[in-house]
Design brief:
By secondary structure, the protein is mainly beta. It has one domain: 2Fe-2S iron-sulphur cluster binding domain, sarcosine oxidase, alpha subunit, N-terminal domain (Ubiquitin-like (UB roll), Roll), CATH 3.10.20. The chain is built from 1 helix and 10 strands. A 5-stranded mixed β-sheet has the order 4-3-9-7-8, with helices on one face. A 3-stranded mixed β-sheet has the order 6-5-10, with no helix packed on it. It has a two-stranded antiparallel sheet with strand order 1-2. Strand 1 and strand 2 form a beta hairpin. The radius of gyration is 14 Å and the shape is globular.
Length: about 100
């Protein structure tokens, strides 16, 4: 069992075993494992990463709230400074993802 597998359902009693390839993405310069079909949010959560962005000056951390794309709390930045919702965006091998620090 890989380190991040403890937070995943790999063999569901009704749906069966997960058949997905392992891939890797980079979050804030750190390489993390993901599975094909993961969203950015599910990959980060599976690696015990819960803080996706920060709102200053209070340094309040933000992460998953609704997990269906309505609240925009899970926003992250991917290549070319594109801001996306982590709960809706699928990962791909070699993806570069970084936290957003807002100066509000």
């Amino acid at each position: 069992m890989k380190n991040n597998d403890r937070l995943r359902v790999l063999n569901h009693p009704v749906l069966g075993a997960v058949k997905a390839e392992s891939i890797y993405l980079n979050f804030n310069g750190r390489q993390i494992a993901a599975m094909e079909g993961d969203t950015i949010a599910s990959a980060l959560m599976a690696n015990d990463i819960k803080n996706f962005r920060q709102v200053n000056p209070q340094a309040q951390n933000r992460g998953i709230y609704c997990n269906i794309g309505h609240c925009f709390e899970c926003r992250v930045q991917i290549e070319n400074d594109v801001t996306v919702r982590a709960c809706l965006t699928k990962v791909y091998d070699g993806m570069q993802v970084s936290s957003i620090i807002q100066n509000k």
